[in-house]
Structures are given as C-alpha cells and as structure tokens.
Amino acid sequence: ALPISMTAAVLAEEQELGLNNFWYFLTEHLFPTTWKQHYSPEFHKDICYELQDLKAGEDLWIFIQREGKKTFVADIAHTIWLICKDPNIRILLIGAREETVKPFARMILSAFEKGTPGFERFQTLYPHMVIEGRGMLKQSFQFIHPRRTLALPDPTFRASYIAVSGAGWRCDVLKFDDPVERRSVNTPEMSAKTSRQMMDLFPLVDTGSRYKNIIGLGTRWAYHDPYGLVIGEKPDDTALAQVALDMVDYPKPKVFIR
Q: pTM for this structure?
C-alpha cells in the first residue's frame, strides 16, 4: 500500500493509473483489501474492460447470473470511477423499484464523504474528491458533487425506478440495474408494458452529451422478456412485435453474456 505521505508526483502517477484502467481502480484503489473475496480476474476483469472501452454513443448490456457482483462492478464502482474522471457527468440509475436502488445511491455518495469506513485508500488517493461536512448538495437518492464546474439542472448522480416519468430529466449515462423482475414478464403483455417503460426512458440520454451511453445489467427470466427486444431478438408475440417496431430506431448495443 502507498503511504499516506506519498509525494505529489507519486500521487499523480497513481491517480493516472487508476483513471486510465478501471480494473486497476476497482482492485487497487476502491476495494484493495476485499476484492479477492468477491471478484476474479478471469470473470470481472472482462466486464471492467467492456465498460472502460465504451465509446460515445455506444450501449452495453450485461447478462450474468444473480450473485455475480455485477451491481458492485458496473453500477457502484464504475459510477465512482466516472465521477472521478469527470465531476460534470450526469448519471441516472434505474431499477425495478425505488427501494432497490436507493441503497446504491447512498453507497456511491458515501465513497466521497470523508471518513467513510472501507474507502480509506480511495480517499487517500483522491483527496480532491473527498467532501467534508455540508460541502455536497445531497438527498437520499441523488447528489451533486461540488467539484462540478458547469451549471446543470440535473445532479451528478440520481437513482430512480422504471415507472418514473423522468419529465425534464437529462443524463449523460443511463444505467439500468435489473429493471425487469420475474413477475413483470409472466405474460407477453406484461413484458410489453415493461419494455415500453424502459424505452420511455431512453430519450433521457442527452443527445448533445459526449457520452450518450446506456448501460444495462439484467437477469433473463423468460424468452419474451424486454431484454430480448433491446438486443434485437425477434419476438413471436404480437404485443411484443409492435414494441420491437417502435424500438427499431435505437442502435443495437454491445452484449456481454456469461
């Protein structure tokens, strides 16, 4: 571990390593003492590189088994990494229900709050991102990082649920974390409704953004689930076929399946 009294040159070099390599950031800066218990180079490293290599306008959907720690990597760690790289970024995280995503918002926020247990090394390496006292505009589901330099109406990070209207919201990166529950795809008609709820949120990505990314994490429950439409599978059901026609204008995403 690097000493707390590291020189400015060493600190700058270490920050550059972390901000240019998401896997290094995850394992050496964010969770250096615990990552080996939860993440493997053979599995999670590939996810990190998929996220790191996303270009402007590209989308990515990740489908892996439950308990695969995809949320910690792609939502929590990746969001912290993006904010460190660009405090002006606007990230919107959508889950199936509000109560499932608010804890993610609290954890992401806590990484930047001075003295949070478990983030000691991160805060040592990125002292300029650490906030003390009342230095951050925050609520339970959103916050604005004070290092932001642009006047923007939307927060640095916001968490909400799939049925939200989102009227007037804009983001640079739209993230979905298991937005589709098993009960919401019991029939093709229910799946079509959920598909439209997801699709209604796509326009929240600012077309003028230098990011324009949609990143989704999911577990597939049925052959007619909304994820099939997102990745371009052709549905047999009439209700889903109409949704697929409406979705044809959206570019097909990159897909990571394990």
A: 0.91
